[in-house]
Amino acid sequence: MSSLGGRAVRTARLARLSASTGGRLWYAGRAQRNGHDARASAQHDRIADEVLDTLGSMKGAAMKLGQLLSYVDVDLHPEAADTYQARLAALREAAPPTDHEAVEQVLREDFGAAPEEVFAAWDPDPVAVASIGQVHRARLPDGSDVAVKVQHPGVAEAVEADLDNLDIFARLAKRISPEVDPDELLVELRERTLAELDYQQEARFQQAFVDRYAGHPFIRVPQVFHDWCRPRVLVLEYVQGRRFDDLLADPKEVRDRYGEVIFRFVFGSLYRFRLFNSDPHPGNFVFPDDGTVAFLDFGSSRSFSAGSRERLERVHRAVAAEDLVELELALRGAGILPEGASTDVGAVLAWFQTLREPMLADAPSTYTREYARRAIAASMDRDSPYLPALRKLRMPPEYLLLNRITFGVNSLLGRLEPTANWHRIMAELSADAPPSTPLGEAEAEFLADHPLRA
């Protein structure tokens, strides 16, 4: 049995958490209805702490569920949404670490030696703990400062056990976030968690991003030290800087800049290089003191074919033009609306407009948390007016991943509240329009003779 617990143990812990959460939420709700706000608040605090402790110590898909609920702006339990998001945010970077001996055993098995023998310097205390692995600082013999990402021992077996318990995950997600359709959340949970187990694939995707952004004026992707990587160990350039939550108190103009950088990286990677990372969450960004943004963690990356990108662009052009006839043709051409099937194309248009609202009008727009919640509710709320039309569609996996990227980016930018003319920036990224901002001018110069542009 691994240090993370076998199948029966993990099932029992999840079942107990789901059952206790339901009872306590009922008690908190009754206290709230009876006017005992302080008692209800204390109960929500205890529930959030129990969820944090249980999911964090279990790692694997269990911890990933808590991470998803912490940053995607779904409607968490309405009486205490901020409490749950604040507690679960600890699962992104400050979850309970795996003990030193277990981590060292992974390194011994993959390198054939103890970490102190492999690296010139090794810090046994992790700087970040995630659902699949944790990150330690180290130094290579040539003096390079590196981040060493070590997979939790037994996490592959834990993930397998968790994915057999999706019915329990669904109940738990429903209790914490009453309005969300748990099926949508669990599809995302499964795909992200399985992808993140493959460290060799992650190294290849990160190198693809490194190759495309080397020398970029404001986007940084840490170097991969391939000779030092192993099946359960990634060795990457260490980047020092502030974390996402540190930015929230910054002046408006600083948050505007960082919001634009994040937007340009996410959508520019897709349209210019046909690459995207489907896990944009706050723990995956570092902000050095030079105005750049370093993007971390490429375990959930994918690539697009040129044909897929063109079909996607055709859909989005029809949405921007509000052309129902062309939108139906574009949906059929992309395989989203199967031949012989019909749906309310007007409702589909309205749904796409909700997902892309900040970038539709040629005018400055500000991302907000209210908008992020509204956008994700359009797809995941059981009462969404768009669901009858959306159920007639057959979304290819790559388009589903893009929707999830949009949800994550909306939530991130909703917290930063940046303002820009996102319509013009998107035109730069997707249609080679002239630069519309100083960052756009700097990026255009970088891209002028880029050899890997798709």
What do these coordinates show?
- It is a single chain.
- The protein has helices spanning 7-33, 37-58, 60-71, 81-88, 90-93, 100-111, 115-118, 155-163, 166-176, 182-196, 199-213, 252-273, 306-321, 324-333, 345-355, 369-380, 387-390, 397-416, 422-431, 438-447; strands spanning 121-122, 128-129, 133-139, 145-151, 219-220, 233-237, 275-277, 285-286, 293-295, 301-303, 365-366, 419-420.
- α1 (7-33) packs across α8, α1 (7-33) runs parallel beside α9 (166-176) and α3 packs across α4 (81-88).
- Strands 1, 2, 3, 4 and 6 form a five-stranded antiparallel β-sheet that branches. The chain has a three-stranded mixed β-sheet with strand order 5-9-8, with helices on one face. A two-stranded antiparallel sheet has the order 7-10.
- The longest helix has 27 residues, at 7-33.
- It has 454 residues and is an alpha+beta fold.
- It contains 20 helices and twelve strands.
- It is globular.
- It has two domains: 7-91 and 159-196, no CATH class; 243-454, no CATH class.
- Helix content is 56%, strand content 9%.
Features:
single chain, 454 residues, alpha+beta, 2 domains, 5-stranded antiparallel beta sheet, 3-stranded mixed beta sheet, 20 helices, 56% helix
| Distinct helical segment count | 20
Structural class: alpha+beta
- The overall pLDDT average reads 84
Percentage of residues assigned to helices: 55-70%
- Major beta sheet, specifics? 5 strands, antiparallel
Low-confidence stretches: none
Question: Rounded to an integer, what's the Rg over CA atoms?
Answer: 22 Å
Terminal Cα separation, in Å? 47 Å
Sheet-strand content, in percent, reads 5-15%
Tally of distinct domains:
2
Count every beta strand, where a strand is a DSSP E run of 2 or more residues. 12
Principal-axis shape: globular
